Amino acid sequence: MGEQELIWSAVVAWMSAKGIQLAKQVSWLPINTATEVANRWIARAVALASTIGIHSQFDPQAGTLMITGLTVSGILYSIGEYAKQYMMQEVAYKKFVKPGV
């Protein structure tokens, strides 16, 4: 992992961990703040969304949607990136959002 990639991964991890904490404080979102299981699933979904590597492009004139990135190698790469991003989110959560947890 290069320096720029590490910095960006840490920034996304902090933003997602902080975003999950802020979402827990909003009364209209059905997030159970008491369970770690729900928190972990939300963190996994955010990590997956930030690393999946599937891109889409819509051409309104032709009425077509092009989806790229759905290759075996792309999916395998995304699994590795997902694991790294989830780990970064856990570290960011424990160090910056909820220190001492």
How would you characterize the overall build of this protein?
This protein is mainly α and 101 residues long. It has one domain (3-97). Helices cover 64% and strands 10% of the residues. The chain contains 3 helices and 2 strands; from the N terminus they run H-H-E-E-H. The chain has helices spanning 3-25, 36-51, 72-97, and strands at 55-59, 64-68. The chain has a two-stranded antiparallel ribbon with strand order 1-2. A hairpin with a 4-residue loop joins strand 1 (55-59) and strand 2 (64-68). The chain is globular. The two termini are 27 Å apart. 14% of the residues are buried.
N-to-C terminal Cα separation, in Å? 27 Å
Number of helix segments?
A: 3
- DSSP helix fraction: 55-70%
Major beta-sheet overview = 2 strands, antiparallel
Structural domain tally:
1
What share of residues are in beta strands? 5-15%
CA radius of gyration is: 16 Å
- Average predicted confidence as pLDDT: 75
Low-confidence stretches: none
- Strand ordering within the main sheet: 1-2
Extended strand count? 2
Categorize the overall geometry: globular
* Overall SS class: mainly alpha
